[in-house]
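User: Could you go from structure to sequence for me? I need the amino acid at each position, not a summary. Structure tokens:
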């Protein structure tokens, strides 16, 4: 008791002493570039104390009653660049400062995709895009599947939770253990090996970086089409907190919250972000009308801890978990009925009939440690260690109709470990990066395909262990004052081992095998790859530059899990890309324009042929040439108005391919377009933000995407395709200028356009497609601290 009284007295004495110290003051004025005073400027002070104020009609401001300490003051006004000043205030001191605000230009976008530290995207001689979290949040985008056209030449589709990322016409339809995607996905630099990991939540996200074209030198395996990197926000030294409540159509309810700040100022910082929510499906199953398909039931979290070990060394620890449930939507919409069958196909594209109560469980989690050390002022070492795991299960109706013909149950348990160490150096006239990469993965998949009519179950149960080792380096050397050259090389050694079990079993007695229809064996494959990069960069007047490059990429080889004997694996895919581009900034920094043109020679394509229920063949059977032009543009059109977008022309056709259709029919599809590769595609967005009255502000944004016809099979037939379509979204947000709270409303697919994002032809009864998102509305309320 006496100790408690003593502690209280000490605290009271400390507070009284603090109040006894003379208070300080920071005051001043804000001007524009012509010297005119600016009223209505929002100023924020952070440090030993915090607060907000605005300049008065004469452009003056004051922060009073401030304790001694270090402060940072920020000045913001719509249409002008944000300005910051650091101030050290002594006890009782009065400090006078001034700000001069410059007319806003397009904000520089900093990326890390070159593995050479932070760089402005406009200074990188390759096709790279960056999409900010604010841009994604306009329409409440939560995963890559909800915004498939966020960057040039990028499309995203899915097969019952398996993500299918396509960049510049290069994607993958082979989803089994022992196979890999053709375009890679990363989470904060950590490779996500399995397709089901693609739809991880945009939780605590800062930006998405998209590197288009083969990334074989710096990223290595499975980045033939390119790479997408999801970058979370790191913890900061300033305390930040927000919570967002969302409610919308389809009975959507979601809560997202984040807190970040110093645990020990300038030494230890942390952040924690959480989200949980539900949303009913947007496709109604008339066989089970109270259980719609395609809904969400999500709980996810991410925690980060950043330690500044000394002035040159920092350690970032990160852990995340993402659980997704709900009734999965697969290829449930019948596009055409096959001969000999009769099914009830509702006229509404978002109504289907299914004979199976579908279910889904996805648990994706991981942890990483990133150590960054400045060896010298110009040389930096980065070590990234990571572990990730996946538990993925679903049950779906794989005949796509109300007929009880096929049911597929899938179980996948995967874990992976990766380690990458890089050393980078930058000084005038020379920049280089080198490193090593180690990767180990164990993946166990089980597919059970029930055939109630014949009372047979097909079993596919491969276990695959994969290892990859690589060493790489790349350097850029100045040849002349405006000309530089880049050269790089990566060597990769990969080994995969499979313990494979499968065959046909009695559905009545699952342990009873069909005589002569089972197999068990082990097999091993080893592949090596050299993937170089060469390039030239020419700096033009005005800060613009042009570049040319040649790069090589590869996708790992794999196994045929339904082969009854070993030795039936397939080799890697390869691609050489020849690219030229231009990047420039115009209108005094208010407009940015990028263009790239490329030709890719794509060889040894891994193609999958379905032979029967639960039996397929994968082999290197095709070659293709892909040509394209990509344009990106962002401009500040006037005070408070910003617009941007991109457009792509893509000529992606097979040079050689004898394709096999369902039932065994073959056809020469030379000259046909690759899957999921529209000839024309684009996106345009525009946003206005401005002040409403003396203290409030509003923003209005619109976002539109469009694409030409895409095909989902190499035969380019009239059934398994999607005709040209466009999708429109919009958002309105209102709140005070100090941004402590905001209320927003958004709509996706405002015109309720019908479209499909993939198709499926192996059902015995019908060709079917996966419907795209229907029209959705939501309102969100955000509170910030």
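Assistant: Here is the amino acid at each position, in order:
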């Amino acid at each position: 008791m006496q100790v408690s009284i003593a502690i209280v007295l000490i605290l009271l004495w400390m507070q009284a002493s603090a109040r006894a110290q003379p208070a300080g003051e920071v005051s001043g004025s804000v001007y524009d570039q012509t010297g005119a005073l600016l009223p209505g400027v929002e100023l924020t002070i952070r440090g030993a104390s915090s607060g907000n104020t605005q300049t008065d009609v004469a452009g003056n401001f004051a922060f009073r009653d401030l304790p001694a300490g270090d402060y940072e003051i920020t000045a913001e006004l719509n249409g002008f660049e944000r300005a910051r000043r650091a101030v050290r205030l002594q006890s009782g001191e009065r400090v006078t400062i001034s700000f001069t605000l410059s007319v806003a230009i397009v904000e520089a976008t900093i990326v890390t995709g070159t593995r050479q530290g932070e760089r402005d995207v406009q200074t990188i001689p390759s096709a790279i895009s960056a999409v900010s979290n604010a841009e994604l949040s306009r329409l409440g985008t939560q995963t890559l599947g909800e915004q498939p056209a966020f960057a040039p030449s990028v499309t995203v589709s899915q097969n019952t939770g398996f993500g299918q990322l396509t960049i510049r016409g290069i994607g993958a339809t082979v989803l089994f253990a022992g196979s890999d995607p053709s375009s890679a996905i990363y989470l904060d630099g950590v490779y996500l090996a399995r397709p089901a990991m693609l739809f991880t939540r945009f939780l605590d996200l800062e930006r998405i970086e998209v590197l288009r074209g083969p990334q074989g030198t710096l990223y290595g395996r499975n980045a033939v089409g390119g790479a997408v990197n999801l970058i979370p926000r790191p913890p900061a030294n300033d305390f930040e907190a927000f919570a967002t409540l969302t409610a919308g159509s389809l009975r959507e309810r979601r809560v997202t919250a984040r807190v970040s700040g110093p645990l020990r100022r300038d030494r230890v910082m942390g952040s924690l972000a959480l989200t949980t929510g539900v949303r009913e499906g947007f496709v109604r199953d008339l066989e089970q009308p109270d259980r719609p398909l395609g809904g969400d039931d999500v709980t996810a979290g991410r925690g980060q801890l950043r330690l500044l070990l000394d002035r040159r060394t920092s350690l970032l620890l990160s852990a995340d978990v993402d659980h997704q449930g709900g009734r999965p939507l697969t290829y449930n919409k019948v596009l055409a009925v096959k001969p000999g069958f009769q099914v009830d196909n509702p006229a509404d594209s978002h109504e289907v009939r299914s004979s199976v109560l579908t279910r889904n469980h996805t648990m994706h989690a991981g942890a990483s440690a990133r150590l960054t050390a400045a060896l010298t002022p110009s040389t930096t070492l980065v070590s990234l260690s990571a572990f990730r795991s996946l538990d993925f299960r679903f049950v779906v109706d794989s005949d796509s109709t109300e007929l009880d013909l096929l049911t597929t149950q899938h179980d996948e348990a995967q874990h992976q470990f990766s380690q990458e160490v890089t050393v980078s150096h930058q000084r005038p006239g020379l920049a280089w990066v080198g490193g090593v990469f180690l990767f180990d993965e164990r993946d166990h998949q089980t597919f059970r395909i029930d055939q109630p009519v014949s009372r047979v179950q097909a079993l596919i149960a491969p276990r695959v262990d994969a290892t990859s080792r690589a060493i790489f380096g790349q350097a850029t050397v100045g040849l002349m004052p405006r000309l530089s050259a880049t050269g790089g090389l990566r060597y990769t050694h990969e080994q995969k081992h499979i313990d494979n079990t499968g065959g046909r079993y009695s559905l009545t007695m699952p342990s009873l095998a069909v005589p002569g229809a089972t197999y068990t064996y082990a097999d091993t494959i080893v592949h090596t790859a050299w993937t170089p990069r060469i390039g030239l960069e020419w700096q033009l007047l005005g800060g613009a530059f042009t570049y040319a490059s040649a790069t090589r990429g590869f996708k790992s080889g794999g196994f045929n899990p339904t082969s009854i004997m070993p030795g039936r694996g397939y080799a890697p895919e390869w691609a050489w890309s020849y690219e030229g581009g231009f990047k420039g900034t115009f209108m005094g920094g208010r407009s940015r324009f990028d263009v790239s043109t490329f030709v890719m020679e794509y060889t040894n394509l891994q193609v999958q042929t379905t032979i029967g229920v639960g039996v397929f063949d994968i082999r290197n059977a095709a070659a293709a040439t892909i040509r394209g032009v990509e344009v990106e543009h962002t401009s500040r059109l006037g005070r408070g108005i910003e617009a941007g977008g991109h457009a792509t022309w893509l000529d992606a056709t097979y040079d050689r391919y004898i394709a096999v259709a369902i039932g065994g029919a073959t056809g020469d599809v030379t000259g046909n377009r690759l899957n999921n590769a529209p000839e024309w595609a684009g996106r345009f967005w525009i946003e206005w933000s401005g002040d409403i009255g003396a203290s409030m502000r509003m923003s209005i944004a619109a976002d539109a995407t469009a694409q030409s016809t895409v095909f989902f099979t190499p035969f380019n037939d009239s059934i398994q395709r999607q005709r040209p379509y466009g999708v429109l979204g919009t958002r309105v947000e209102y709140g005070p200028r100090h941004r402590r709270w905001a209320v927003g409303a958004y709509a996706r697919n405002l015109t309720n356009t019908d479209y499909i994002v993939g198709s499926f032809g192996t059902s015995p009864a019908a060709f079917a497609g996966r419907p795209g998102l229907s029209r959705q509305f939501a309102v969100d309320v955000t509170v910030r601290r």
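One structural detail worth keeping in mind: The helical segments are 2-20, 133-137.
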